């Protein structure tokens, strides 16, 4: 076992619970401890290498997702009213952040009832010496979209007063992770059949106890008794053929440009060319291609010739039409908009503005809800004083969502709310001044009988207008 492998150098002695062993002993080791490796889809590496690593459309789409995920503000809040917190969670799950004007106002009012006014500091300022929490968010989105899985390893002291309290956090490479089941695990009835997670890297395997790993995954309907459903389902699995088609179209375009167009055969137009004439003509073409002189591409022949094309050029193959089709399918499956890829069919500014908002509510927010739920239960509440706290991302503070915010302010100005309720919804401090907790009405509105007009006067006016008509 190589002691100086990548993970040993990266984590040192911090990972007290992690163990490594040679791949050669993998099967024997599993048999010895009675574990069973869950069935695994080894194409995850292909999804990353052939998709995100090579295909420009996949790279562009996923990178935009990662950048926007990193940009969403987040905070740790202490719950003071569990019922209001439950209603708020229900509203968020039902709308994915695509609130109506009233729902947005309800959200802010529920927040004021559910949480303490003052936000709590994030319990771990930096996840590890090499990364920021922005990196963690970006890798979360990347791995979830490419492999359907995200693994976050938490390292903590095994003994002492800080036992069980995370000190370092690392993202594990999803495309190299394997789930190992408990001995005699019952996938139908066991509450948690997972014994540990295993990272396979070359000749080394690294083991991580299940309690140290936060595993977030996409839904997987393909159940089997080997535990294949314990892994998330990668959306790239449905895209493989389109990615291959897109990659081949790009490859063929490069080949065409490299050979400067079509290829085929020259032949004598009126009589057959001799072998010597054919050889001399080929050599002449090679020399002309290499010569950079101004007149190098001009030459003369003493006999007429003709050219028989054998290849199909890009004009006939229409590769860019296929590329546009594949690009649209890639965006559809990944839940993004091709209007945001800077193509000619992206539409006007208003359409792009609407699409930027849509992908936040339909793509970014649902995955952040999964992240918040998992991190709250498995990470945040491990810290002392955070037992009743929650992690929450707030997409309403993004620039794309500010029009909804303005509409909410206009609605609240006319709604039967107290000034302090309005201030709370706008995240301002409440004021103890007189009347701030009282509902005010618009003094400009009066009953019709208070301005000297009676019902009989209205009826007479109506009859008079009817006679005029």
Topology:
Layout: H1 6-11, E1 19-22, H2 26-33, E2 36-37, H3 44-52, H4 56-71, E3 74-78, H5 82-95, H6 101-114, H7 133-147, E4 149-155, E5 168-172, E6 177-181, E7 194-201, E8 204-209, E9 213-217, H8 240-258, E10 264-268, H9 275-290, E11 305-309, H10 314-317, H11 319-334, H12 349-378, E12 389-393, H13 402-414, H14 419-425, H15 455-468
Antiparallel strand pairs: 1-8, 2-6, 3-12, 4-5, 4-9, 6-7, 7-8, 10-11
Helix pairs in contact: 4-7, 4-11, 5-6, 6-13, 6-14, 8-11
| Total E-strand runs | 12
Give, in spatial order, the strands making up the sheet with the most strands.
1-8-7-6-2
Cα distance, first to last residue?
A: 101 Å
Q: What is the overall number of helices?
A: 15
Q: Overall mean pLDDT score?
A: 81
Q: Given the helix and strand composition, which structural class is it?
A: alpha+beta
């Amino acid at each position: 076992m190589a002691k100086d492998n990548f993970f040993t150098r990266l984590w040192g002695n911090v990972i007290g619970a992690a163990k490594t062993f040679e791949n050669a002993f993998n099967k024997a080791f599993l048999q010895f401890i009675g574990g069973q490796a869950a069935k695994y889809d080894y194409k995850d590496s292909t999804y990353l290498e052939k998709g995100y690593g090579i295909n420009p459309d996949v790279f562009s789409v996923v990178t935009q997702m990662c950048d926007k995920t990193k940009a969403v503000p987040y905070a740790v809040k202490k719950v003071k009213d569990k019922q209001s917190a439950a209603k708020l969670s229900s509203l968020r799950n039902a709308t994915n952040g695509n609130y109506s004007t009233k729902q947005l106002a309800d959200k802010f009012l529920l927040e004021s009832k559910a949480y303490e006014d003052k936000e709590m500091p994030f319990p771990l300022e930096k996840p590890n010496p090499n990364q920021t929490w922005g990196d963690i968010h970006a890798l979360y989105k990347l791995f979830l979209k490419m492999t359907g899985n995200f693994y976050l390893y938490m390292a903590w002291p095994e003994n002492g007063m800080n036992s069980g309290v995370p000190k370092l956090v690392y993202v594990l490479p999803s495309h190299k992770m394997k789930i190992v089941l408990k001995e005699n695990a019952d996938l139908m009835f066991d509450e948690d059949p997972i014994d540990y997670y295993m990272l396979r890297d070359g000749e080394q395997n690294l083991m991580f106890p299940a309690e140290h790993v936060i595993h977030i995954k996409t839904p997987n309907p393909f159940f089997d008794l080997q535990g294949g459903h314990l892994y998330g389902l990668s959306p790239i699995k449905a895209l493989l053929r389109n990615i291959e088609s897109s990659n081949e179209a790009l490859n063929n375009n490069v080949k065409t440009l490299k050979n400067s167009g079509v290829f085929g055969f020259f032949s004598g137009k009126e009589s057959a060319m001799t072998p010597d004439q054919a050889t001399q003509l080929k050599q002449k073409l090679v020399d002309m291609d290499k010569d950079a002189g101004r007149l190098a591409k001009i030459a003369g022949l003493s006999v007429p010739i003709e050219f028989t094309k054998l290849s199909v050029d890009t004009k006939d193959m229409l590769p860019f039409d296929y590329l546009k089709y594949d690009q649209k399918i890639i965006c559809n499956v990944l839940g993004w908009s091709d209007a945001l890829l800077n193509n000619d069919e992206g539409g006007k500014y208003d359409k792009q503005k609407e699409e930027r908002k849509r992908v936040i509510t339909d793509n970014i927010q649902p995955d952040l809800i999964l992240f918040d739920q998992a991190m709250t239960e498995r990470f945040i509440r491990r810290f002392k004083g955070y037992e009743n706290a929650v992690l929450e991302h707030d997409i309403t503070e993004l620039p794309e969502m500010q029009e909804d915010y303005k509409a909410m302010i206009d609605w609240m100005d006319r709604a039967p709310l107290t000034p302090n309720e309005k201030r709370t919804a706008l995240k301002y401090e409440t004021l103890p001044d007189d009347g701030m907790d009282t509902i005010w009405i618009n003094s400009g509105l009066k009953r019709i009988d208070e301005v000297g007009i009676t019902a009989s006067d209205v009826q007479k006016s109506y009859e008079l207008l009817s006679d005029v008509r």
